[in-house]
Amino acid sequence: MKVLLINGSPHERGTTYIALKKAADTLEQLGIETEIFHVGSLQSVCIDCRVCKKKGNNRCIYDDSVNEALEKAETADGFIFGTPVHYASASGLMTAFMDRAFYAGSDLFRYKPAAAVACARRAGTTAALDQLNKYMTISCMPIVSSQYWNMVHGSVPEDAPKDGEGMQIMETLAKNMAWLLKCIEFGRKNGIEPPDPEPQVRTDFIR
């Protein structure tokens, strides 16, 4: 089993990385393979061209780190999406990544457990978590929780390990993720499979 952790910070080894690394280390101790993937830079935001839907190949028309992550998502069993907080929301980089990844590759995320993690100097974390959770709840993904909201505080990377509660939250989150993944694996070995997705019913408010 493998968990893919997405680092949506402009800084590859910033506070968000420290939070994700704590979760990854705990997962590894519990026998779950991990990979921390840094989004890096993107060629574009989503332009609603819908070419990805027409091709149906779970890839975006812009061939950058979004497609690289989608390729990794094919073999991942769970996900943790991490972002710094910019103006009480996820970073612009992470927002662009999530828009494109989930629109182009929604089939790759369905029924796989996921969690969001937000890092901030002080506030705005819960708003950012609400934002990221919406991508998962529109994609039939079980949400993994912790003992408190998934947040770590720190102005610089060196601050994050000093947030004792935040570090414990990451550890608990990882334990809960490992437990759920093992439950799903046990269920599948005993003939319990996810439900077949139905054709989506869309109702427009204006006709």
UniProtKB/TrEMBL annotation:
InterPro entries in alphabetical order: Flavoprotein-like_sf (IPR029039), FMN_Rdtase-like_dom (IPR005025), ISF_SsuE-like (IPR051796)
Domain spans labelled NADPH-dependent FMN reductase-like: 1-153
An annotated Gene Ontology molecular function: oxidoreductase activity
Keyword Protein biosynthesis among record annotations: no
Sorted UniProt keywords: Flavoprotein, FMN
Pfam family, one: FMN_red
SUPFAM superfamilies per the UniProt record, alphabetical: Flavoproteins
Stated name of the protein: Flavodoxin family protein
Species, as recorded: Lientehia hominis
